[in-house]
Write a structure and sequence with these properties.
11 strands, mainly beta, 4-stranded antiparallel beta sheet, 7-stranded mixed beta sheet
């Protein structure tokens, strides 16, 4: 599967962005069975989990999200989304999507990143 992330950009603190990640080279039934997620990596920091949605609908968020972000998926479009509200300068990072049929905290395919910059 090939993952294509988009939607990053420059936003002021307190603003919102919506990221998308579309899967290509994947048939619909396979995508529907995939666990999908978003990670981010800020300059000089390790990559960290932002949110995960598994094939069964279970969702988990990183502790720092605190109700500001929402992950969702549209299996018909083979796409996942990350709605980010109340953005903070510390949310500035390259955001990556990841997907796989197993535990994506350990395995899976990465998409290219999309840069989110939050100005103060």
């Amino acid at each position: 599967v090939q993952l294509q992330a988009s939607g990053g950009g420059l936003v002021q603190a307190g603003g919102s962005l919506r990221l998308s990640c579309a899967a290509s080279r994947s048939i619909l039934s396979v995508f529907s069975a995939m666990n999908m997620g978003w990670y981010r990596q800020a300059p000089g920091k390790q990559r960290e989990l932002v949110a995960v949605t598994n094939a069964g609908g279970r969702i988990e968020y990183g502790d720092f999200v605190k109700g500001r972000f929402t992950i969702s998926r549209d299996n018909a479009k083979k796409t996942i989304y990350l709605q980010m509200n109340s953005l903070k300068p510390e949310d500035t990072a390259v955001y990556y999507c990841k997907g796989g049929l197993g535990d994506i905290t350990r395995f899976g395919s990465w998409g290219q990143g999309t840069l989110v910059t939050v100005s103060s």
